[in-house]
Each structure stands twice: as C-alpha cells, then as structure tokens.
Write a sequence for this structure.
C-alpha cells in the first residue's frame, strides 16, 4: 500500500522505494505521539505528506517531476499549517499530529474522498476540512471547494 | 467505481464491516473488479518479495542508531510491533481471500456448548524482530469475513473470536479471558499452569471462542514469563502484578443486540 501510494504520487519506482522507507522511519520517529488506531490511514497520510515534500523540493530545485500539475501546485502551495508543524508548535498543542492542508487537499482532490471521508480520515470536522481547503484554494489554481 | 484508497483499505482489512462486505460482494459478482483486486494482490506479493520487511527493519534500525542510539532498543520494539501489525493485517486480509489458506476449525462455546465449524485463517506471518515483545491478536468472524478487533472494540453475545499470539523468545505462557461476570476461561495452558511456548511466527489457537451473554466486557490476557507459573482463578491480580510475568491484554466491550 505504501509503495503503491508513493509510486502513484511520484510516478518513479526508485523514488517510491526510497520514500516508502522514509515513511516507516518517520512514523517510527514520531511513534510516541501518533494515534495507531488506524494504521492504514497513518501510513497513507504520511506517505502523502512526504511525497508532497519531495515534489515541492524537486520543483524548488528546478528538477523535472512526473507528477501531475495539480499535485505540483498543491505541493508548492504555502501552507501555514505546515510551517507551524515544522516549528513543532502544533505538535506540542495536540497529542495527535494534525494533517497539513496540502495533505487534506490531496485526499479530497486527488484521491476523490468526499468531505466527510476526508474529515474522518484526518480527524477534523467537515467544516474544519472545508475551511482548510478554502485557505489553500486562494493559493492554488483549479481547486474548488464544494 | 471504488476509489484506490478504499481498495487499499479493503486489502488491508481496515474498513468498517459494512464496507468490507459491500466490496467483497462486488468482488464476487463483478469480473472486472475481481480482476483488479487480483492484480493488486499479486502486486502486493511482488512488492513484499522485492522489499521484504526484514530489509526495512534493518534500515530503520540503522537510521535510528545514528540519531538516538540510547533509546533504540526500547523504541524499535514498539515500532516493530506496530509495523508488523500493519503487515500482518495486510497479509491476513490478503490470505483470507484465498481458498487454499482457509481451514475449518472447531468453535468452543464459552462455558460449554456444542462446537461449530468456522472458517479461520491460517497465515504464516514469519516476520520476527529481535527484542520484539509478545503479541496477541483478537479476530472476529463476521458475515463479511474475519476482521481484527482492537482494544475496546465492541463485541456481542455469540461473536466467534479467534485468538492469535506470538512470543519473541522461548518462554512459558498462558492465555485466558475474564468476563463481566468475573468468570475465568482458559484458552491455552495446561489447566491453570503455563505451557512452554516457542518463538517466531504467529500461532492461531486451534479453536475459536464463542462469547456468551456475560455483560460489560471480555478481557483477554496473554501472560508470559521465563519461569514456570500458574494462575489462581480466585486471585488473578496476584499473577498480573507479579514482576516476573509480562502481560498483554485486549478488552472487548460487550454490547447488546
């Protein structure tokens, strides 16, 4: 599942193998504060987040990416939530690490999850998901929050 | 059209019962969908062959050894357990779809009663990690297949429960449960005495357990120790508080119809 997810987003076998291992290492590193009740969701969302970071890094370095333009746009969107996460602010406030708006956008727009399914997936309310998506919508073309 | 993310959850058995059943029915009736699932299962096996978990666990250990050598042993144990759990769920879900690995097994009625036939999974989850703690899994037979129950999941009278366990090293072990009436049921042991257990793969008990009408809860205990021991039915706490034993438990909340 993790390998397929990485390959789906990165469209590169070697990078998918590499990222798959990063997913497990990342989860292991943050194990103390993660909710392990739904391991599939945790693996899926972590893979999504790391793939977005990889796509963004490649874009910033001017490297070609096989990922779709929508995915590149989402990956490169400024995301305050991600910045806060990077500063470890939210991790200190919440026992369950909140998903970034970018990850939420991929679940909804790329994976085709409904707002309800997305909300369940990331542990937010539907209105919370909608709010996050609207925040990102202003920064990413072709995103329409229903 | 079932989206990819939902199919992945289906393959790992990590969907609610209703959705599991719906997708299983679709697999049974839709040839194109069944082929899609078949290809994904084959892909799963190919990925596991190409990137075996043993290799991954070594990389994780290496990565952490560089950053936090003093906490490695304690932390890797917990992560390994979680990761193996995920892989085990995936494997069990994968194998449960195959007729060749499904075997008939007797179901023992709690507190007596006639045995019944239940299809149970016999998987070979041989992945083992040094230092891994003893593990116990609780599975329930449902119309949609067999699903794993987590701690504090709900269960009902008549639910057929299958217990599985693994120990990381040779030891003595007992597996028993306590219900809301305070009744103790032995699932594995020589009477009340612990039996010797071999390390390695997950072991399924040779019988399933049908929950009776006891209220509130059913709590399963896997107790292991390097020393021989026994449980006193009238004083289970004494065993559970013994510093020489390790206890893994899963509690099911009993709910009515």
């Amino acid at each position: 599942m993790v390998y397929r997810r990485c390959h789906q987003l990165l469209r590169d076998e070697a990078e998918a193998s590499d990222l798959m291992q990063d997913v497990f290492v990342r989860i292991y590193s943050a194990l103390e504060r993660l909710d392990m009740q739904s391991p599939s969701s945790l693996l899926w969302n972590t893979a999504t987040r790391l793939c977005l970071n990889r796509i963004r890094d490649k874009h910033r370095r001017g490297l070609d990416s096989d990922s779709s333009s929508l995915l590149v746009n989402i990956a490169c969107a400024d995301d305050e939530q991600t910045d806060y996460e990077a500063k470890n602010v939210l991790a200190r406030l919440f026992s369950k690490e909140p998903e970034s708006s970018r990850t939420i956008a991929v679940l909804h727009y790329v994976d085709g999850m409904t707002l309800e399914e997305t909300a369940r997936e990331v542990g937010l309310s539907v209105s919370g998901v909608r709010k996050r998506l609207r925040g990102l919508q202003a920064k990413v073309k072709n995103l329409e929050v229903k | 059209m079932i989206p990819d993310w939902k199919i992945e959850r289906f393959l790992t058995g990590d969907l609610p019962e209703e959705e599991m059943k719906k997708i299983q029915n679709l697999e049974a009736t839709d040839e194109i969908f069944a082929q899609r699932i078949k290809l994904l299962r084959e892909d799963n096996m190919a990925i596991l062959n190409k990137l075996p978990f043993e290799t991954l666990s070594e990389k994780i250990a290496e990565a952490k050894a560089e950053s936090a050598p003093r906490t490695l042993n304690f932390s890797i144990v917990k992560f390994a357990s979680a990761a193996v759990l995920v892989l085990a769920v995936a494997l069990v879900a994968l194998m449960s779809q195959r007729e060749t690995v499904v075997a008939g097994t007797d179901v023992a009625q709690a507190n007596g009663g006639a045995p019944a036939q239940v299809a149970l999974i016999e998987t070979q989850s041989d992945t083992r990690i040094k230092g891994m703690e003893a593990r116990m899994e609780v599975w329930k037979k449902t119309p949609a297949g067999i699903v794993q129950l987590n701690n504090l999941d709900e269960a009902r009278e008549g639910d057929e429960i299958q217990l599985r366990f693994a120990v990381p090293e040779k030891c003595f072990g007992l597996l028993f449960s306590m219900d809301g009436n305070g009744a103790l049921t032995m699932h594995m042991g020589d009477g009340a005495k612990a039996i010797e257990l071999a390390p390695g793969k997950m072991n399924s008990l040779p019988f399933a357990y049908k929950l009776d009408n006891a209220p509130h809860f059913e709590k399963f205990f896997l107790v292991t120790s390097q020393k021989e021991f026994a449980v006193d039915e009238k004083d289970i706490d004494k065993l559970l508080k013994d510093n020489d034993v390790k206890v893994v438990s899963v509690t099911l909340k009993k709910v009515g119809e």
